[in-house]
Amino acid sequence: MKRWGLRHRGGNSRETPLADNGIFYMTDAVPGKKYRIARIDGGYRLNSRLCAMGFIPNEIFYVSGASRGGPLCVFIKGTKFAIGRGMAEKIQIREI
Amino acid sequence: MAKEIKEITIAISGNPNSGKTTIFNNLTGLRQHVGNYPGVTVEKKTGVIKYKGYRINVVDLPGTYSLTAYSLEEIVARNFIVNEKPDVVIDVVDSSNLERNLYLAVQLMELNTPLILAFNMADIVKKSGKKIDINLLSELFGAPIVETVGSRGLGSDKLLEAIVRAVSSRKEKKVEVKYGEEVENEIDRITLVLKKQKIPTFKFDIRWIAVKLLEQDREIIDKIKKGSGSKYLKVEETVGSSIDHLTSILRDSPEVIIADGRYGFIKGALLEAYKEVDSGKLDVSEKIDRVLTNRILGIPIFVLIIWLMFQFVFTLGKYPMGWIELGFEKLSALITEIVQQGLIRSLLVDGIIGGVGGVITFTPNIILLFFTIAVLEDSGYMARAAFVMDRIMHKIGLHGKSFIPLIIGFGCTVPAYMGSRILENRKDRLVTMHINTFMSCGARLPVYILFAGAFFPAIAGNVIFSIYLIGVLMAVTMARVLRATRFRGESEPFVMELPPYRIPTLKGILIHTWERTWMYIKKAGTVILAISILMWILFTFPMIGNNYSQNYNGQIEKFEQSYRSGEITEDELNEKAAVIEGKMAGERLTYSAAGRIGRFLEPVFRPLGFDWKMVVATISGIAAKEVVVSTMGTLYSIQEADGQSDSLKTALYNHYHPLVGYNFMLFTLLYFPCMAGMVIFRKEAGTKEMLFQIGYTFLLAWVMSFLVFQIGRLFI
Questions:
Q1: CA dihedral B670, B674, B675, B681 (to 10 degrees)
Q2: What residue spans of B339-425 are helical by DSSP H?
Q3: Domains, chain B, with CATH or none
Q4: Which region holds residue B121: left if phi is over 0, alpha if psi is between -120 and 50, else beta?
Q5: A13 is a domain residue
């Protein structure tokens, strides 16, 4: 597992399913439906990059498509991004 | 009265896809210079404009979303702004997407740079009926704002005007982003420690450093650490406790909170100056994407587009290539006519025209290739291609975009190396380049045709196909090996913008194509010229003089006499003379340094089943793979050898076992692409990587051929 930073908190989704309160991961988003980002949990480097691209808490987004097992297409802040699953698993989301 | 020319430097920054390059092109036109930033492979474009008594040096910074130290491009952009202190920084902003694009502007503001905002694509905003209060925004950001439409060349004059105004009357008005009470308290704490410990701040603003430390910016941390020695411990302690404190009370890490603060500032400003409506409706781009990135259709469409590109580049390129070849042939003939037979003629015709000409001949391919790549890039499809191919390429440790240079490699490895530039991540790029040579290029095909035709005439097609297949398998294997060893880890997580589809501007595409092509031609004229001369020397000296094993000239004379006396026809004479001249050429080659090196190295290649002639052919193939065929021809004293030469095929068949013949094809596939390829490789990746490429491909070729020959021998 690649360490992103000194304070890596290891927020890897699959082994540690999120408890409850309607929070889940971006990889589980239903395409076309709008969600809000709840939290970004990837170590400072990944966090900084995602933030610079507009992935910040409370931002609304929707997944507009995905290739099977490959990256997701995410529409956020007026721009479309292709984002790898590994990265999408570091983004926690909730329903609006 | 002579006016004094004042020299100023401006830098152009902006998000990817904001139209930054178009603005740069509009300002500088064709007066551009492309180089690299010192020590890194990030492209640096510069240009000069003369305007109202100013000589304005324009530097195009790499497109970035922010000025954190996440990528090489960001570090380069930030270091340029901090170290070179440009007189003005123009931030090109996509004004149809202000909230996102102004994030970089806020960071530039924080760096305290004299800033001009170019609100690009202003026409799109106007068309959509939205209104921006430019004056108010300009006030809020403390920077002049100029509206531009890059694609139609509008606004460049106003931009120049604004630059001159900003330089002549600099007003110090600092706008500060506030991050909320908790964060501000920690910033104050850190600032205090920095001051108290007298930590060197280099050219940075102290508040900015405090913010960067909270964001855990590696670059800055390392810099401060180095500059302050043991005093840094105190800083580290304070920053650590600040981070823990913020994380515990705000439940997000500081870098996220700080980013949130910047977006908050932008939102606040836009709330006053701009009526934002998030329409979320399906626009044209979205409709196109429904098809092009479709789960099922995506890959077939991608394959089709690549196939079309391949056809376009190599089919259309064939004609101008033919003209250039013809031109060089005419030039050779002309030189043969006016220059006396001898060393100078041989150097000009065989060495220089043969070497440099062979490289220049590929120029039409290069032009067409970069033209298509520029169209794919500027239209927005390239990002989709990467998206579609990412899953498959990911499995062999590569990036979705790697597929494109690999496909190009089947045509010619040289443009394929250059095409690897579309990969931003250095490791992805290097692995792609290192395996590209195994995608068997067009120049190797004549060698296969000759050998497969000589040894396996009935199944030649299948044999050649098997060589191509082995190449692909080697590429996949080596990609995984390299990823697991030299280029381990740091595989950049996949995230990239899928910009809206746009119709590319012809000017942008032409500039793109031209600058890359020019780099190629320049290389052909310098380094490749030198290597061609060197190869010529190896194959010419020492000269045999009159030390031929037989009196060949006497033999030719004898035939000429019999022709004059009517015993043989002119055709017969020419035929006989050609055979003898072929033998002479063979002996000259044997006597030359290359021939000697061949015999000297023979023991190394004997375990592969090669004799010294194959070694010499291999050496000549370093210049260009197709040369292998003509060298083989010379060695077997057959004039005008090409892949179709039946006498050469017979000669090979009589001399070698089919296993050796196959093995030679395999070796030709794997070893060292060619000298033009290596020159470009060095230019793209540096000397160290080039040496690695040369070393490992030779080694791999040797080991594979060794295995095939030694194992194959057991069965024959």
A1: -70
A2: 343-346, 358-360, 363-379, 381-395, 403-409, 413-419
A3: 6-168 (3.40.50.300), 181-273 (1.10.287.1770)
A4: left
A5: no
* Residues 6+ positions from B623 with CB-CB distance below 8 Å: B355, B358, B531, B532, B535, B674, B675
Assigned domain for A17 exists: no
**Higher-scoring residue by pLDDT: B62, B701:** B701
Q: Where are the beta strands (DSSP E) in B309-368?
A: none
Nearest CA in chain B to A87: B493
Token output for B205? 């603003």
Give the domain CATH number at A77: 2.30.30.90
Q: Number of folded domains in chain A?
A: 1
Positive or negative, the CA dihedral B261, B264, B268, B269 is positive
C-alpha distances out from residue B628 to B83, B446, B594, B613, Å: 51, 9, 13, 10
Residues in chain B closer than 8 A to A69 (CB atoms): 391
Residue A22 distance to chain B (closest CA, Å)? 17
Measured CA to CA in angstroms, residue B91 lies from B62, B139, B236 at distances of 12, 16, 33
Looking at chain A, which residue has its C-alpha nearest residue B394?
A70
B301 or B547, which is more confident? B301
Average pLDDT for B264-268? 88
Q: How many helices (H) and strands (E) does chain B have?
A: 33, 8
Residue A48 belongs to domain spanning: 23-95
pLDDT in tens, B76-106: 888 899 888 899 999 999 988 888 999 999 9
The half-sphere exposure of B55 on its side-chain side, counting CA atoms within 13 A, is 5
Q: d(Cα A36, Cα A39) in Å, to the nearest integer? A: 9
Please indicate, yes or no, if residue A4 is contained in any of the structural domains: no
Backbone phi and psi for residue B132, each to the nearest 5 degrees, phi listed first: -115, 130
**Nearest-by-Cβ selection for A56 from B259, B290, B295:** B259
Partner residues linked to B58 by β-bridges: B10, B47
Whether A84 and B494 lie within 8 Å, measured CB to CB: yes
Question: Which of B260, B491, B494 is the mutation pick for testing A, counting most A CBs within 10 A?
Answer: B494
In a domain, A73, yes or no: yes
